[in-house]
Amino acid sequence: MRNMLYSGLARSIGFIPQGIAMLAISYLVIHHYGVETFTGYAVIASVMLLIPLNSLGVGASLTQSIAANGVGDEHAVRTGLTASRVLTVSMLFLAIVSTALGLAGVWPELLGDAAGANTFTAIALVIYAMSFVPGLGPSVLLGADRNHVAILGQSLQAPIALALVGVLILGDFSPDWVIVVPALAAFLVNLVTMGLSARLTGFPWARVIARIPSRAKFPGARIRSLSGPMLVTSLCLPIAFLCDRIILSHVSTTAAVADYTVVTQIFAPVTGLIVAGAQPLWPMYTRARARGEAGPNLKAVLAIFMLGTVLVCAVLVAVADRIGTIIGGDEINLGYFLPFVTAVVMCIQAVTYPLAMSLMDPAGARFVAICAVITVPCNITLSILLSERMGAPGPLVSLIIVSTVVQVIPVSIFARRRSRSGEEIALS
C-alpha cells in the first residue's frame, strides 16, 4: 500500500499547480484569442486522446515484465525493444497520415466546426507522434515501483502548456499556434519522463533505441498475450469515451464544447488522483499472482476510492459554476446539473479503474477488451442522441449509463468470480 500512498501524494502535490495551469490556459486563451481558438485547442487535445496509436497495449507488457522479473532482466529489456519498435512504426504511420490529410486540407471537415486551422492541426499531430516512444517512460517507472516519479513528471504537462501559451501571447503569435501547444507539451514531458526512468531505474533506453532498426540482429520479446487485449482496449475506449468534444462539435454548439471543456478541466484532477492511486495496484497484483497469493482486498480498495471521490466531487460541484464564470465570463455557463453529472462520472471511474488494475493478466485483460468492444457503438450512439437534445451534459449522461451497464457490472461480476488473484476464468 505504500506505493499507492506515494502515488496519491505525488498526485496531490501536482494537483494545485496542474489544476491552476489548466484553468489559467482556458482563461488566457479565451480572453486573449477568443472562444473559437479555445475550442480549437480543446478539440486537438481530444484528438490526441482519441488517437490510440501512442500505446497499442505495448506499454502494459513492458510494465508487466518489469514488475514480474525486474528492470534489469533481459526479457524486460527485450520487451522494451519490441514495444519501441511497435511505437516507432505507429509514429511514422500517424506522421504520414496527418501530413497527407493536412496537404489535402480536410482536417476541419473531419473535426467539425470547432476545429482549428488545417495546417496547424497537421503539425500538432506530427509532434504528438514524436512523443510515442518517449511515452514508454512511465511504463518503466510503474513496473519498477516508481509510479510517483512518473506522476510528478506528467504533472508538468499543464504548467509547460501554460508557459507555451504565455510565450505565444507575449510574442504576439497568431492564434493558430495555440493548436500546437498540447502536442508540444506532451512531447517535452515524455522526454523528461523517459530520462527519469533511465536515471532512476537503470533501464537501458539508449541501448534499446539504438537496436530498434536491427530486428534480425536484436530480436525482441513476444508480448501478444497481454498487449493484444490491451491493444483492443486502447483502440476502443478512447473512441467510446473521449470523442465527446468532437460529437458536440458536430451535433451541438460551440458554447456546448466550451462548457464541456471547462467542466472536465475542473474535474480533471479528480481523474488524475484516481489513476495515480490505482496504478500501483497493477504491479502489486502481478507480484501476488506470481507468488500464488491474493492481492489487496478489492472491496476495501473500492470503498476507499469511492469515499475519497465523493468528498472531493461534492466540493467541486458546489464551486464549479463560479470557477467557470471566472474563467470565461458570460461565455461559460455551467450551472449545477453539468458539474453534477461530471461528478457521477468521476465516481464511476473510482470503481472501474481499480477493478481494471486488479485484472491486469491475460485472462482479465481479455474480458476487459470484450467489454470495451461492446462499449464503443453503445456509447457513441447514445452520446449523439443525447448531445443533440441536452448539449454539453449529453455525452456525460451517456457515459454514466454505458459505463455502468457495460463496464462496472460485468467487470465486477468477473472479478468476484475469481477464487484467488490470477485464477484463469474461461470466457467461452
Automatic annotation (TrEMBL):
Its main location: membrane. Keywords: Cell membrane, Membrane, Transmembrane, Transmembrane helix. It is found in: Cell membrane. InterPro entries: Poly_Biosynth_Transport. The keyword Transmembrane applies. The chain crosses the membrane at residues 12-34, 40-62, 83-107, 119-142, 149-171, 177-205, 226-248, 260-279, 300-320, 332-355, 367-386, 392-415. One of its GO terms (cellular component) is plasma membrane. It is a multi-pass membrane protein. This is O-antigen/teichoic acid export membrane protein.
